[in-house]
Design goal:
6 strands; homodimer; 44% strand; alpha+beta; 2 helices; S-adenosylmethionine decarboxylase
Chain lengths: 116, 116
């Protein structure tokens, strides 16, 4: 894992999504594009589709992880972008997700975690 | 995914760990025990060992996810427990992790995210 003494975590509640939140392949493509545009390295992609509805996609990154959980019946998605590199801006990834999911509103929270 | 209109997220910075944070199999066992004791359902377990050091373990739960990232050279681990069920208390999982990792100190943050 890349080394840095701080971890930046961006958590976004995404409301009123007009895109199909039940399409797990679409969500994988969106997160992989977000990771690429941030300049991060995807180590593993994990996807799980729940029954009857809802998906979870998690990317393990060389710089920690990104995850999205969706509740299509509420048009809601919970996004976390968790990076331990000063060169990577989680906002860049979030912009890609925002364009793809077409929400009516959202709420972001930021946390900085100190490794030492 | 189980349905609830709130998500509870517990984030813990864990310092001065006396256990071996480079032992990915140990970390998987700790997180799986924590999930079980919380009463959550593990859907998938994902583990990645970084070179030369550091591990990431993520459990996809029926109630969202748990993740741990470790930096053994700093004796530091970042734990997230993210649950969307009123019956599951993330503190129960954190207690299992705390006993296993033997930290000298820690810092917890809690977030509640509204689905609607």
């Amino acid at each position: 894992m890349k080394r840095l003494k701080r971890i930046h975590e961006l958590l976004v509640d995404i409301y009123g999504c007009k895109s199909n939140l039940d399409d797990a392949e679409f969500l994988v493509a969106v997160l992989e594009e977000a990771a690429q545009k941030m300049g991060s390295t995807v180590v593993k992609t994990i996807c799980h589709k729940f029954s009857p509805t809802g998906s979870t996609v998690i990317l393990i990154l060389a710089e920690t992880h990104m995850s999205i959980h969706t509740w299509p019946e509420y048009k809601y998605a919970a996004l976390d972008i968790f990076v331990c590199s000063e060169e990577i801006d989680p906002e860049v990834g979030w912009r890609i997700v925002r364009v793809a999911l077409k929400p009516t509103s959202f709420k972001t929270s930021k946390l900085v975690r100190k490794i030492e």
